[in-house]
Amino acid sequence: DEESHREVYEQLRQLVSTYPTVPSGLDTPYHRHPDGWYTFLPAMVSVMVAQRHFTARDTDIIITTFPKCGTTWLKALLFATVHRDGGGGGGVEDDAALAQLRARNPHELVPFLEIQVYVRDRVPDLSSLPAPRLLATHIPRPSLPASIAASGCKVVYICRDPKDCLVSLWHFHDAQRPEPRGDVGEEFRLFCDGVSPVGSYWDHVLAYWRWHVERPGQVLFMTYEELSADTLGQLRRLAEFVGRPFTGEERAARVDEAIVKACSFESLAGAEVNRSGTVELMEEPMRNAEFFRRGVVGGWPNYLSLEMATRIDEITESKFKGSGLVL
Ligand code: A3P
Question: Residues in domain Sulfotransferase (predicted)?
């Protein structure tokens, strides 16, 4: 009941407040989780509530990402793929899932466990949601609710060139400051030190990569760059992976192409709901437009010096060495 849920959160708030803190570059510090990653206190509490209370089912599909690596895009593509109905007799333009995507932000359609579900001192009962439940999270692999791996449900990870990720993250943070600073230097230093919204970019990616290598049938590993270069091919791969491959008939009717188009940066960013609407994240309204900045590969030279880029590439090389992962 409500009282006991509030109690759960309150106890965790007290516990997390004892964890060491580090400056985040924003107005509150990050706390350090015993598993070695950082985030703000309320988000860490929500992660811990999710760990205790989220029970995955084998039919679930969970998107896992490091922030700013293509989460919004992947949510849109997955939602449209899983809930497509081909528009009944009316053709792909009448597809019910695509209509939803025009009316609602992808974060409303595929919520984050720790940012939207386990918030406001609530422990919602998700058991009555129809299968497949589509959910998302930024939680690092070591702290993921154990039932996700145990259930055998599908997990889809997407990552991105860390240089573009950093630039995107910095814009995202800077837009949230009362006075944008317009300088990437501090964000760069924190990023290189692994002090990012869910800890080190490299640790996050590597842990999910290793899980994918161990369990390729459970964990799909995608990159923003591959998705940009061949969106249709990657969409088909995604559909296949989640057990909803496009049939020959659907391909002939261009259902898959319609999804690619509806989820393109231009379509999503241009939708009225994403231009003017908001979504509640961590109990605060966030402008949907913040999730659509440029949507391109390789935009980093506009913001990072060559020295910064070299430093990041060096870290990437040393961290990923021997893992088989090449970005
Ligand atoms: P940029 O800041 O480089 O433009 P996330 O969704 O994980 O928060 O990542 C946000 C990044 O994805 C932003 O990158 C955003 O512009 C980009 N993005 C959002 N929707 C997209 C889409 N439909 N196609 C391509 N990129 C998209």
Answer: 58-324
